[in-house]
Amino acid sequence: MKLSKKIFENLKKKNINFITIDGITCSGKSLFANLLKDNLKKKFKYVSILSKDLFLFPRSKRIKITKKIKNSKFNQNNLHYDLKKLKILLNFLAGKSKSKTLILKNLYDRKSGKNNLKLKINYIRNRLIIFEGIYVNQDIKLIKKPILRVLLIEKVYNSLSRKIQRIRDRQISIQSVVTEFVKIHLQSFKKYLLNNNFDISFIDQNRKFQKIKDGRNKQLKEIISFLKKHMY
Hints:
This protein is an alpha/beta fold and 232 residues long. The protein is built from 9 helices and 8 strands. It is 40% helix and 22% strand.
């Protein structure tokens, strides 16, 4: 993926050292983050990717939560993520800690579905952080430094299809995945989009990302159209 130099050439001039990458589930956030890092590593000495998935609660806990859901009045960010632990890391990266090294344990491993990862990170003043995940625009509000907020647009049906393909075993059924997607994820993300703005949007076209205007409203229309047709 080649990104226009005009899009990111002023990052240093604006003293931006945080880039957030947000989008509905399975919209290509991790892929985009890695491609972006490859594009920027020649311009920045230190570029690091922070994945919000590290702060997911154990998979077994999230499955139990999904099975208990009876209506859509839930905030997925609070339901599925250890936001207290994430706040510790964000404060550290913002330079609000006296220590120069931070160690976090029991983080989520996407491959195994267990919380057995350990993260050790050193504070570097001029590091560029690419923070990718759902609702990261909301999490990053405690950071006072300049931030570039990126939104990835994806067709809702493509997102759901990829989510179903990620099912690992029989602990959760396709129906439960669809229920979570419609009643929790889309409802939460719709409210989130209504209350947050983004600096730039990209659309995923066959895993190639192109800049798009008015991305937030276009994604909202996609979600609302889907919910009108399939909400139950």
